[in-house]
Design goal:
This protein has nine helices and seven strands; from the N terminus they run βαβαααβαβαββααβα. It is an alpha/beta fold and 218 residues long. It has one domain: Rossmann fold. The strands form two sheets. Strands 2-3-1-4-7 form a five-stranded parallel sheet. β5 and β6 form a beta hairpin. The longest helix is centred in the last third of the chain and has 16 residues. It binds adenosine monophosphate. Adenosine monophosphate (AMP) binds next to α2 and α3.
Length: 218
Amino acid sequence: MLNIILMGPPGAGKGTHAQWMSTDFQIPHISTGDMFREAMSSGSALGNQIKDIVNRGDLVSDELTCALVKERLSKPDCANGYLLDGFPRTLEQAKAFREMGKEIGRAPNLVVNIAAPDELLVQRITTRRVCPHCGASYNVVTMKPKQEGICDVCGTPLIQRKDDNEESFKVRLANYYKSTAPLLEFYREEGLLHEFDGTVGFVALKKDITALLQEIQK
Ligand code: AMP
């Protein structure tokens, strides 16, 4: 069983690697960032409530985020594994998730952390383009789509996320170090943490993560 938490600073490659992990290991990719962006573009009450917070790079409240995750993880498609991307992001969320995971029978069994230095992160974030329809992620320098500005997977025109600018990135990175990085110690103590170097390139990292997931699946 693969109940995975995918961690790393913004721009480390979580979204990119989540795509193939989800396909190759047949587990749903659950991104809280994608869920919030969907709520924002649908113009729902939740979307309006969080729009300014997300666009400036701040964190949505633990209460709201945990409720959303609990509802999503309780769905039947998560019974045989899941890939959580972008959650938990605070110690409060991690503690709440420890209880919630037990309660709904969906406790995580491994944490994959992808690390990368700040200079690389800011460079990747400001050149990133994403598909607003399927969530696929590209880069105008290092990972161009086959046709400029168009998603390879579903043909939708690509966009730049509103929070993928230098100003919001600074807020997101500061929040990462303050609120999210301490979770590494939390999961190390729980014996769940597996750490990867996000600078090695897509193919090499995919190979290393694949080896780990196959080992755990045995
Ligand atoms: P991401 O796509 O993971 O970079 O998330 C985009 C934005 O959504 C973040 O900058 C936050 O504003 C919000 N967000 C995503 N996940 C969480 C979370 N677990 N807790 C609080 N806010 C979140």
